[in-house]
Write a structure and sequence with these properties.
This protein is mostly helical. The chain is 67% helix and 0% strand. The longest helix has 30 residues, at 20-49.
């Protein structure tokens, strides 16, 4: 157990963190702004691109609208969600395969 008087000096110099309430309010405001933006953009993009798993992936990767948010705005058939998850897994696999891994030894 660590006592408050045993803390290193940098801990006593740290500024106080924001109250939790203000952080929660800020996050709620960010979400409301994202939802408002989604309500404006999603129908236009779906009309232009059509509803597909690729469109869901585009909305997620490009604009940050997760499929559940999109489904709250426009009708997303269940098979589209399946296509989205397949697309997401392809993206993950491509990302993993493009990583350059290097073994580092520390002596």
């Amino acid at each position: 157990m660590v006592r408050w008087d045993d803390l290193p000096p940098e801990c006593s110099e740290a500024k106080e963190s924001e109250p939790i309430e203000s952080t929660i309010i800020e996050e709620e405001q960010k979400f409301a702004a994202l939802l408002k933006k989604a309500e404006e953009m999603v129908p236009k993009i779906v009309e232009k691109r059509g509803m597909s798993g690729d469109t869901l992936a585009f909305l997620h990767f490009t604009h940050g609208f997760d499929p559940e948010t999109v489904a709250g705005i426009v009708d997303v058939p269940r098979e589209m969600m399946k296509q989205y998850h397949e697309n997401l897994e392809r993206e993950r696999a491509a990302s993993r395969s493009s990583q350059k891994k290097q073994i580092i030894s520390i002596q």
